[in-house]
Amino acid sequence: MFKSGFIKLNKTEPPKExxxxxxxxxxxxxxxxxxxxxxxxxxxHYFAQFGEVTNINIPKSKKTGxxxxxxxxxxxxxxxxxxxxxxxxxxxxxxxxxxAKYLEPNQVKSNTFWRCNKNNxxxxxxxxxxxxKAMDRQLDPAQEKQSKAALKRRIQSLQKKxxxxxxxxxxxxxx
Length: 175
Hints:
By secondary structure, the protein is an alpha+beta fold. Helix content is about 30%, strand content about 15%. It has 2 domains: about 90 residues, RRM (RNA recognition motif) domain (Alpha-Beta Plaits, 2-Layer Sandwich); about 40 residues. The protein contains 4 helices and 6 strands, in the order E-H-E-E-H-E-E-E-H-H.
């Protein structure tokens, strides 16, 4: 008999399969020569016309934070990704010719989408360091008042310079 509190596990029973699709079941498209301004939100809306977009990864430079010019787009179904790759290859967009290639599941690295959106939350800033900097920039009320006063002084000095050159420039600042 078993002691109370212990459960006997049957090791011959196969593990239960997950109901959600893994990244191996999905289709990934590599995009090269991505034009400036065609980022996560724009890509998600543009590629939604083909099918459901599950993830988008646009690698960015560690030094500048700017996009490197290529991207990976993951679709729910591999068939959709193949159609997108065929359709978008050699597509002219903003004076650049896109390169689109369907990636086989064995070509996709496991960490390609590790920082990306997994829960279909609206795509926003992904880079954690940028998020931290944005949170650090939040000022307390006294600092905010000082920064607004400094901004007002700078605008007033610019207005004086412009007025001396014959240009009238009015700005309303709430302090």
